[in-house]
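User: Just a sanity check before I run the rest of the batch. Below are the C-alpha cells for the first item. I only need the designed sequence back.
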C-alpha cells in the first residue's frame, strides 16, 4: 500500500469515528432535551398545585453554569492619578473614551463585559452564548485593546494608558439579573485564577494560563512566563502572548489577522454552527424523513471533507464544502420540494452571524444548488458534494439505505410499489456516474455490484 493510500485510509477511519461520535452525541442531546421537558412539566404542575406562579417555579432560574468560559481581567495602570485636580476632568473624559472603545472591541468579538471594579476591567467569552472559540476571541480582543492603548499613548500621558492583562479558561457560574438590561456576575475558581494571572503581570503584557494556551497556541506566538502557585491545584504555568503568528498575521505587529487565520478560525467555529443546525433539524424535520434526516446530513459533511482532502482542495474550500453539506438538506424543514433553494435561504440567514463573507455565502449556495437532481456539477466543489450526497450508492449498506428513501417517498405518495422502486433504482444507478477520481476509486466498483443485487430483487 502506498503512503498516500495509507494516509487516506487513516483519514477515512478518523472521519468515520467522528461521524459516529457526532451521531451518538446528538442522540444523547435529544434524550437530555426530552428529560428536561418532562422535568419542567412536573415542576409546573407542582407549582400550580401549590398556587405558585410559574415564573418562580425554579429558584435557580437566574443561575447558569458554563463548562468553558474565558475570563479576562485588565488593569489600567494610572487610575490613582485621576485625583489630580489639575487635569482630572480631562483625564476622566479620556478614560471614558478608552472604556467605550474597549466595549466596542468586546462586542466585535462577542465577549460579555462583566463589570469595572475600580481600576480593573472584567469580561468573559463564552457567555451568555456558549461557543468553542471563546479563548481565541478573548485573546484577539486583548491584543486589540493593547494596540488601541499603544496608539492613545502617543496622544496623551503614556503612564495613564498602560495596562496588564490576565486570561484563564475554565468553568464558571453566572448570576443573571435585570430584564431590559441583562447583567452577569460570574464566580468560581476560573475567575479567581484569571485575576491572579493578571496580578503577576507587568504593564504591556498579556498573560494567559496554560489552559488558555493549549486552546490558542496554533494561532498565537507565545513565550513561557513562569509558574503561579494555586491553592489545592499546585503550580499553574503561564505564557505571555506576543501576537498572532506571522503566517496568520496581516500586519507586522501581529494584531490584524489575515485570510488564513480567518479560515482556520471558521473551521473550528464550524463545530458550534453544526451543533445549532443539527439541533434545528432534529426538532423541525418532518417525521416521515427516513432518509433525508440528521444522519444523512452528518454523512455528507463527513464525506465532503474526506473527498475534498483527497482531491487536494484548500482549507477555505473545505470550509465551503462542509458548510454547504450542513445546509444542503436543511430546506426540508420548510418544504420537501425545492428544498435545495430553501437550504440556501437558511444559509444566507445564519452564516452572516458567523462571519462568512458575501462571496463565501454565494459559493456555498452554488454548491448546495448543485445537489438538485439530476446532478450536473460545473466545478470541483460541486462534483465533490454531488459524490458525497450519493455516496451510499457505492456502499455495502446501499440497499437498506435505499429502502429508507423508498419509505420516505411512499409515505408522501411519490412512488408506487417496492418493485417499482427497485426498477427505478436500477435505471438511476446504471445512468449515474461519480465525478471525482476519489469517489470513482472508492465507490464505483461496489456500485456495479449493487445494481446486480437489486436486479435479483425485481419481480417480472
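Assistant: Here's the designed sequence for the first item:
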Amino acid at each position: 500500500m502506498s503512503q498516500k493510500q495509507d494516509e487516506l485510509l487513516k483519514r477515512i477511519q478518523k472521519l468515520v469515528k467522528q461521524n459516529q461520535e457526532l451521531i451518538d452525541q446528538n442522540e444523547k442531546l435529544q434524550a437530555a432535551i426530552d428529560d428536561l421537558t418532562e422535568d419542567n412539566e412536573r415542576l409546573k404542575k407542582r407549582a400550580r398545585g401549590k398556587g405558585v406562579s410559574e415564573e418562580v417555579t425554579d429558584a435557580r432560574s437566574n443561575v447558569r453554569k458554563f463548562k468553558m468560559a474565558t475570563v479576562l481581567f485588565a488593569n489600567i495602570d494610572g487610575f490613582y492619578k485621576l485625583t489630580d485636580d489639575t487635569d482630572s476632568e480631562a483625564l476622566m473624559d479620556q478614560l471614558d473614551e478608552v472604556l467605550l472603545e474597549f466595549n466596542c472591541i468586546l462586542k466585535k468579538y462577542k465577549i460579555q463585559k462583566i463589570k469595572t471594579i475600580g481600576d480593573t476591567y472584567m469580561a468573559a467569552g463564552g457567555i451568555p452564548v456558549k461557543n468553542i472559540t471563546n479563548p481565541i476571541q478573548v485573546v484577539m480582543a486583548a491584543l486589540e485593546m493593547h494596540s488601541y492603548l499603544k496608539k492613545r499613548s502617543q496622544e496623551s500621558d503614556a503612564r495613564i494608558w498602560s495596562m496588564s492583562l490576565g486570561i484563564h479558561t475554565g468553568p464558571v457560574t453566572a448570576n443573571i439579573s435585570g430584564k431590559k438590561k441583562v447583567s452577569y456576575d460570574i464566580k468560581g475558581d476560573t475567575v479567581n485564577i484569571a485575576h491572579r494571572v493578571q496580578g503577576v503581570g507587568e504593564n504591556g503584557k498579556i498573560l494567559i494560563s496554560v489552559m488558555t494556551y493549549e486552546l490558542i497556541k496554533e494561532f498565537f506566538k507565545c513565550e513561557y512566563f513562569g509558574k503561579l502557585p494555586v491553592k489545592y491545584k499546585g503550580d499553574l504555568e503561564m505564557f505571555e502572548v506576543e501576537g498572532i503568528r506571522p503566517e496568520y498575521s496581516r500586519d507586522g505587529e501581529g494584531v490584524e489577522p489575515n485570510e488564513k487565520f480567518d479560515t482556520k478560525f471558521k473551521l473550528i467555529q464550524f463545530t458550534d454552527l453544526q451543533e445549532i443546525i443539527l439541533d434545528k433539524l432534529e426538532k423541525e424535520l418532518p417525521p416521515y424523513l427516513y432518509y433525508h434526516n440528521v444522519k444523512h446530513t452528518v454523512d455528507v459533511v463527513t464525506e465532503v471533507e474526506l473527498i475534498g482532502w483527497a482531491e487536494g482542495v484548500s482549507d477555505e474550500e473545505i470550509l465551503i464544502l462542509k458548510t454547504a453539506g450542513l445546509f444542503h438538506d436543511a430546506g426540508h424543514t420548510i418544504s420537501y420540494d425545492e428544498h435545495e433553494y430553501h437550504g440556501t435561504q437558511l444559509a444566507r440567514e445564519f452564516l452572516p452571524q458567523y462571519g462568512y463573507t458575501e462571496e463565501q455565502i454565494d459559493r456555498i449556495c452554488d454548491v448546495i444548488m448543485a445537489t438538485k437532481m439530476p446532478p450536473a456539477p460545473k466545478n470541483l466543489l460541486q462534483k465533490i458534494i454531488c459524490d458525497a450526497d450519493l455516496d451510499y450508492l457505492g456502499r455495502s449498506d446501499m440497499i437498506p439505505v435505499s429502502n429508507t428513501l423508498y419509505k420516505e417517498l411512499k409515505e408522501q405518495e411519490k412512488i408506487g410499489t417496492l418493485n417499482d422502486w427497485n426498477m427505478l433504482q436500477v435505471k438511476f444507478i446504471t445512468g449515474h456516474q461519480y465525478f471525482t477520481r476519489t469517489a470513482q476509486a472508492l465507490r464505483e466498483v461496489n456500485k456495479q455490484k449493487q445494481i446486480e443485487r437489486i436486479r435479483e430483487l425485481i419481480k417480472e
